[in-house]
Amino acid sequence: MGGMMNDTYITLVGNVTADPRQYDCNDGSRVTSLRLASTRRVFDRSSQTWHDGETTFYAVRCYRSLADNVARSIKLGQPIVVHGRLRIRSYDRDGERRFTAEVEATSVGHDLRRGVSTFQRPQRGPASPAFDQTAHSSDSGDARDAGGAADPFLGAGAVAPADAIAAVRAEQASAAGVPWAAQASSEPLAA
Predict the structure, then answer these.
(1) Quaternary structure per UniProt (predicted)?
(2) Residues 108 and 124 in one domain
């Protein structure tokens, strides 16, 4: 895993409480953050029913390609599963020391116990948008991205890749270690 021995990895299930926000860092990378509400379910043996327990809120931070994918895929209110490193951050407010739970996500996905989803590889490279606000905020209609066509099998607002060959070349370039910026001017890659 490459982390320190004392890292605590957790898996959370909950709902997104606000649309993900994406930030650009000074080094050109992007970070996406979101808030997750996770509510315990408690079984009451006397009444033989389930009840909501206490709700815990977590800040979730996503880096690199995960940041881009989360910004384009996850929306307010959606049920998700998050796996990552637990961090407890402290801060001072009004002279009082407080703590907040934060997760540095390594994986994020929709909770398929509560709905259906489809998988689509993102188009990478200098021509692909990092975060298309129109496609992200549109739940209905015909969101189009970089020449792609709306695909009825992917659901409302989803966009099919415009060029499958470009996606294969991007994967080959990634496997060969070709930097994304140099990929646009490189010769076609052989299989």
Answers:
(1) Homotetramer.
(2) no
